[in-house]
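Sequence, structure tokens reproduced for absentees:
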Amino acid sequence: MNKIGLIIQREYLTRVRKKSFIVMTIIGPILMAALMIVPIWMAMNDEDEANILVIDDSFLFNERMTDTENIHFFFPEVGVGLDSAKSQMVASDDFDAVLYIHKNIMSSPSGIQLIYDKQPGINVIRYIENTIENDIEKFKLAKSGINQATIEAAKTNVRLVTTKLDEIGEESKSNTELSMIVGMFSGILIYMFIFLYGVQVMRGVIEEKTSRIIEVIISSVKPFELMMGKIIGIALVGLTQFLLWIVLSTAFISGGKALVEDHFSKGSPTSIEQAMNSTEQLVPEGEEAVSAELNQEAIDEIFASINQIDFPVILFSFLFYFLGGYLIYSALFAAVGSAVDNEADSQQFMLPITAPIIFSFVMAQVVINNPESPMSFWLSMIPFTSPIIMMVRIPFGVPYWELGLSMALLVIGFIGTTWIAGRIYRTGILMYGKKISYKELWKWLRYH
């Protein structure tokens, strides 16, 4: 055991001291935080300034185009035509675009033109389209004798509230979309870490074998001890990096959240707020309070669903399945590394090893749609697929006996896989210059 400890220490310290480890430990959380914060920040600051000159030959929209914080409409004197408006836009910097509405707009709404010398933002275009659409609908309803208030009163929002009933009859709020996000995110991380660190084990074995340093090491330790020390040492490297990612990501996301909240506290207008303000004009006063109440209920339900997710169980399960899945696959990667002389020769043996984990990643998208199906159950029990599939299922609620059985089978799978990998490793680690086939590997498994 002391020799295994020394090997673990060597593998661990050699990798955590590398510049690549330090750089990725810092860049990883920054990228994760950026994926969450940057889109929000860009949406908040995407405030398109636009001054638009409106030429309305239908005389239906004069003074009906409502300004927003950043979009302003100007209506010239009667008699100003399209050509004159375009010349005015080109000759001065007062206007960014000319909006031309033809006289047959009610029968042919597709002929509207937006002529510009500077590309308007997508928010500007959508706002103009929505405003004209709403006004045309109002004109048509009024022409048919239908009151707009009647139409608005008939609109109904249906929101399905999901409640989970456990085995003892207790109820808890749930949110399927939130569970899907947590499950898929956990599965993707497991998939990424297993591949990343499993391949590191294989490359480390190939490097030591081709440099012949393995002959010196093997004179002092048993092959199985060397393999286990390398696997566990790299596992601790991955665990260290993962924990640092959690701490740093939390810090970066908290800092980004503070910037976002500070932006809102200063009352900065956003494109989202503008869209809400523009749509509020179409909602009757009596409906505004109801809409606000429904929105508040939806927010309360989301927070209630978040509180119902057992994050301690998810975190513990993630660490267990990360280590279990990594140990299974890294043992196989180590066996492949010991059987070949270079990484190019390893490709013929990689497909049988990587196929189960790739299959489980693909099937995770099917499992997430029906986490209680028999297929989902069995895939979460098989050791080669359970690390990803069970992590996808856990946020939806998995009975503890299923979780315990899956973990026990994963441990048994690791022991069996390590035994097989060890028998290949002890022979292949000193084998040079020979092309290995599956038949040869089978012989190595039967050697005594």
Remarks:
- The radius of gyration is 32 Å.
- The longest helix spans residues 223-265.
- Residues 50-154 form a domain with the D-Maltodextrin-Binding Protein; domain 2 fold (CATH 3.40.190.10).
